[in-house]
Amino acid sequence: VLGAGTVGSALIGRLIDDRSIGSGSGLDLAVRRIAVKHISKKRPFDLPGLVTDQAEWVVNDPSIDVVVEAIGGVEPAGDLLLAAIEAGKPVITANKELVATRGAEILEASRWSGVPFLYEAAVGGGIPIIRALVESLSSEKITRLVGVLNGTTNYILSAMTAQGTSFRSALEKATELGYAEPDPSDDISGRDTAFKISILARVAMGARVPPWEVATDGISGLTETDIEQASAEDRVWKLIGRAEQTDESVTVSVRPELLDREHPLAAIGGVTNAVMVEGPAIGQLIFSGPGAGGEATATALIGDLVQAMSRPRVRPGARRRPPRILLHR
Ligand code: HSE
After folding, report:
1. Strands, DSSP E only, in the chain?
2. Which atom of ligand 1 is nearest to 186's Cα?
3. Which of the residue ranges 65-79, 252-266, 313-327 would you say has the lowest mean pLDDT?
4. Is residue 200 pLDDT above 90, yes or no?
């Protein structure tokens, strides 16, 4: 495990407390090494023999079968994941910034070498939205994705709307609960949502819209008066990530939107995230659940761990041939 912040620590705690995780798929998952930046920092687990500040050793250690990255940020996480793939280790990440900015490159390395690279935990916390888009909805031409994709801002807006809490104290509470980014301006500015909608647009629509090309506006321009006025009109403010596909193009944006109370996303409150997916055959689907926090995100990481390690493995370094499709024998 690389990184032992909110998410990494929750994952480590779960794997240590419940050794039966993965056993249903014939796996024996054990934490072998934990790479951290500051080795002397106090952690919620007591595993001194496993902790190191040498992340490179972890990705290159031949006794380690799989790497989970929960460091955050693009570097050194990206190079570490590429090194792990090079060493034949499947990689699992919760890092939306990395997946949004270097995801295509890492996916290419993963496909080339036949080593899984999974990132369910990067979008929507505990909601299995990536797997739903990649697998269950693979035949659907997704025309629209509309999401509440940031737990912190949704928690703040909900607390301001429902309890009249001030922006500042709602943000403090979201930070205390482990929802906010290390620098919460990433949440407030819409940057975090831009990473997530950029990932969803690629996965669902094949669109390469990097986060810096997503028209982004956060919630800092919203005043308490705006929120009160919306309530008086029976409407509610939500920070919305949106991707819309036409025959010609895909448009991706992040901005606060004023929703009528009847809108399917209007009732999504607190840290909950939701993604509305539309396509010609399915009409409309809505996925919702806890969008941030260590435990929910650790559940998504564990799901990916089990999926990656249950797959038939391709020899490390072996270039995969395109599959031959046999229609008749
Ligand atoms: N800070 C993020 C959020 C964490 O509040 O949604 C989960 O990606």
Report:
1. 34-35, 51-52, 67-69, 91-93, 117-118, 144-148, 215-216, 235-245, 250-260, 272-279, 283-290
2. 1
3. 313-327
4. yes
